[in-house]
Fold:
Amino acid sequence: MNLYLKKICFCDLCGKFFSENMLQFLVFLFSLGALAPLFGSEPPGIPHLGAHSQRLELEGIGTLLACPPSDETEGKSSQLLLEKPGGMVEVIYTLEGMSFISLLRGDLDGDQVPEIVAVARSSTGPDLVPYIFSEKQGFTCLYPGEDEDTPLIGEEILLVAGKDVTSLCVRNKLDFHQYGPPLIQSEFYRLSGKRIQKTGESFAEGSHFNLQLNRAALFFQRGQYLEAQKGYQSVLEKYGAVLPREATAEALFYQAESRKFLKDFKTAETLYQKVVSGFPDSKITDAARKEHAFLSGNSSGSAELSLYIDAGRLNDLGQSEKSLELLNRYLLTNATGPLADRLFFLKGEALSSLDRTDEAISVFRDFKRKFSNSPLIEDVNMHLEELIGNPEESENEPTHTGEKE
Structure:
């Protein structure tokens, strides 16, 4: 009873104290906010480490955090942070236009010290890009380097542990042909210094014809035309009875394209004609008709036709320097042949892809003066518009450049 009375008396005392000193008490509480920086609040410029941040504990080092933008006020930058023991936070890397979404750790170069892989997603689509950091070099970014023009891109990025090594796996769905399930491709990479080296690839197994069509298409995209031709031929032989008409037309067309790049022009003509006569309603028939007419009209100039095929193939494969070398050598003494307009056009495309813009503009302008009746004029105008704006308005503007031969 006495204890109860003492509690009542104490509460009364507190109530009296607070009622008499409420203003001073609130001022006191407010003043505590001035001490917040001394008790571990985040320093200016460090984003809030919210629930969406990915965390990776590193024993003896701290916690690595991949922080996507938490709201619109932070813009579109994402940061990789290191939270050290004791609470200090260090900014490791800032990424613009992409968001870090996951953290992986594994030994990618076989030196017994793991690397950090921060996976970033594009702000404009689902593409993922791996950023690799060296743990032993203070989290220096090893990949992609500043000179990396075409970094790895995948729909899924993960680490695959083998018996002795760990590989970076970049997985994509290939759907060049869309008549069934896509072909799942997994490419495996190791780190060598600051360079990524491909060590292998695999494909998901399956019996659907669309998977085989896309295997053939991948060979074609890589410039492996003999394998592509065999792949399309195999699909036509094995699945001909169940292939949709459009799929059959595409297989025949790309079989013809493969034969063309292999310089088997007669067989290519025959296959193009099969598309034209057998599939008149196909969306690919017009292209087959043009290719057939082109080959049948130029088969007599086999040397020039062969050069045109080689240069076009090199441009398509991103080897424009080699294409330009072939074209310059030939056009130096053979600038008026039956395919001269097409060769000049390929030269302009090669220069454009090499970012030699002034030279490309000069070549396309020369094209319009020399080949005003060419069927490629519309394509030339499109290139000029991309490079300088309206080609008609800029036709008479001086170009301060000398073309390199």
DSSP finds eleven helices and twelve strands in the chain.
